[in-house]
Specification:
Layout (H helix, E strand, L loop, with lengths): L11 E8 L3 E8 L5 E8 L12 E3 L10 E3 L4 E5 L13 H5 L5 H20 L11 E4 L5 H10 L4 E5 L4 H11 L9 E5 L4 H10 L9 E5 L4 H4 L2 H15 L4 E5 L7
Parallel strand pairs: 7-8, 7-10, 8-9, 10-11
Antiparallel strand pairs: 1-2, 2-3, 3-6, 4-5
């Protein structure tokens, strides 16, 4: 399932985690400690139209915590999975740990979104962001589906949300993959606690309080052994989005596990 490939540095291993016709996911690990430093997601399908795409990406985080940027293929998203010292939590400690993984539910949701609604995104794609389809991802963790929807499908605006205590890593990854000087990329990271009041505040902050989002996405946000009964709050949040925009499309993707 995994293989080691040649790299410029002897200190980095490239391990294949997943690959299909749509995308591939690779884990970049320190060869000495076997600690994962980042994941590289390569999108194989069509890119968004009528938009000049200029992207940079981060290299693995150094031991000193410094991050550098290099120009990369526009079909590639590289995401640091190294938590900041203040965000490090015990293994299986809720969202902190789960938010550093690319789950299969996220991959399946991304592919379904492309297959089912890719034409909807592309038909509304223009350089002035007029008439584009908006998307919010709930409990997004690394935010891979939302980033792909923004970078390769043409969704705009895209708002990636999660608990405030784990958004610092997400903000760094978005900045590295969506340079500030790239006006074509409308993507934001905002904290969101799962409550109706928080949803209304989010909509107001994004200027969508009257029209809401076109798509509401959540991937693997239901798993009682890790998240408890938080799925009840998730239902309330989704319902609030639907109250604002009854026509919005809600996509929930989850993996059924034996312990759930």
């Amino acid at each position: 399932m995994s293989k080691q490939e040649d790299h410029d540095s002897d200190d980095v291993e490239d391990l294949d985690l997943y690959e299909d016709d749509y995308l591939s996911v690779q884990s970049i690990r320190d060869s000495h400690s076997d600690v994962e430093e980042s994941v590289v997601v390569t999108w194989k399908m069509g890119r968004r139209e009528n938009t000049e795409m200029v992207h940079t990406t981060v290299t693995p985080v150094s031991r000193e915590g410094e991050v550098s940027q290099t120009v990369c293929d526009s079909r590639v998203i590289r995401i640091s999975t190294v938590l900041e010292p203040e965000n490090i939590a015990p293994l299986f400690s809720g969202a902190e740990w789960a938010g550093t993984r690319v789950w299969h539910a996220a991959i399946r949701a991304t592919e379904y979104l492309y297959d089912t609604y890719g034409d909807v995104f592309n038909s509304h794609c223009d350089t002035k962001h007029i008439g584009k389809k908006s998307l919010v991802e709930l409990g997004c963790g690394l935010g891979v589906p939302g980033m792909i929807a923004s970078k390769f499908m043409g969704a705009s605006p895209v708002v990636l949300t999660d608990q405030s205590n784990i958004t610092s890593q997400l903000i760094r990854n978005v900045k590295s993959n969506f340079p500030e000087n790239c006006e074509a990329d409308h993507i934001a990271v905002l904290p969101l606690d799962w409550s109706r009041k928080a949803v209304r505040s989010l909509l107001k902050e994004t200027g969508l309080e009257k029209i809401g989002f076109d798509f509401v996405l959540n991937c693997d946000c239901v798993f009682e052994p890790l998240y408890g009964k938080s799925w009840m709050l998730l239902i309330e949040v989704i319902d609030e989005f639907l109250l604002i925009n009854p026509k919005c499309i809600v996509l929930t993707s989850m993996e059924r596990r034996n312990s759930d």
